[in-house]
Amino acid sequence: MISIPQPVFVVGSWRSGTTITAKLLNHLPGVCIAKETGFITESLHLLQQVPAASALTPLLAQVNSWLQTNGWAGRVTIGGFRDFCNHSGLHGPRAFLYYVWTLDCTQPFRELRFVGDNTPLYVLAIPQLLEMLPDARFIHVVRDPRDVVCSTLDLRFGAHNALVAALEWNSCLGAWLMAERYLDAGVFTSFRYEDLCSAPAAVMQQLSEFLECPDGAAEAALERQMRTPAASSEFSKVAESAHHRNLSNPLSPARVGRYLKSLSAEQIREIEVTARSGMLAYGYEPQAAGLHPLATEDRGRILQAMIRDLCRRLLFRIRGR
Known about the structure:
Blueprint: E1 6-12, H1 18-25, E2 31-34, H2 39-42, H3 44-47, H4 53-69, H5 78-88, H6 92-101, E3 114-117, H7 126-132, E4 137-142, H8 145-152, H9 162-182, E5 188-192, H10 193-198, H11 200-210, H12 217-227, H13 236-239, H14 259-262, H15 265-281, H16 299-318
Parallel strand pairs: 1-3, 1-4, 2-3, 4-5
Helix pairs in contact: 8-9, 9-15, 11-12
C-alpha cells in the first residue's frame, strides 16, 4: 500500500521569501514543494466539486493556463488524473492537488512524506485550505515590510504604491496571526526571512524538525543548495524570472535592507506608520512617528493611494509588462 504524504503550505506576503524557502525544503528527504499554484483560490468552487466531470473539464483548462504562464513543464489531463488516482488510491480535491503538485517533482510519489505549495497569498485562504485538507501543515515566512514593498513596487503583478503595498503586507500578516489562534500548535511554524539570510543553519534546523526529518538533514540540505544551481532544479524556469534572480545567489545578510538605498524617506515613513504594529510584533524597528491612516480616519488618503495604484496597474497591463 502506498504511503500518502501530508500536505504543507509555505505562506506569507508577496516577496517574503517563500520561493527560496520552498527550494530549500526540496533538499530535505521526502519533501516536494511545488512552484506557485495560484489557481486554488481562483478555482476553489471547481476544486470542491472534483471528480464531477462538469467541474473537471473547466478546471483542467484553468490549471493548464496557469501552468503554462508560470513555467511548469507538466500539464494536467483527464487521463493523467485518473491514472494518478488509481496509482495513489486518492480521490476528490486532495487527489487533484497532489496530482498537480507532483507534475514536476523529481522524487517518486511513494517516497514522499510531505507534498505542497509555496503560493504566498494562500495565507489569506487558510480556512478554505483546511476544509479540503484538514491535515495540512503551514510554514509562514515574514519579511521586513520595507524590503517587501521595495521588492514589490515595480513588478507587473504587485502594488505600485508604498501605502497600498504596506496595507497588503498588513492583511497577510493579520491573516496569519489570526490563523495562529485556531491552528493546532503542532501544524505550523514561522520564521523571519532575515534570520534565514543571516543564520540559515538555525532556520533550516527548525524546518527540518518541523517536517520530522532525520538528524543531519538540515545541514545536508544547505550543502545541496550550495551545490545545486537553480537552473538544474524544479525551480529552473522560476529562476529565469527577473524577480526571482536571487534564487541563484547564496543566502547572505546582503539580501537584507535594500530599502535603505531604493526607497525615499517619504515611502519609508508611509510603510512604517501603516505597518508599525506588525513590525513591532516581529522585531522590526520603525523609525518614523505617526499613526495608521485609519486611526485618524484619513480614508481619503487611502483612497487616493489605491486609485493611483490601480491606474499604474492598468498602465502596466496595457503596456504588456
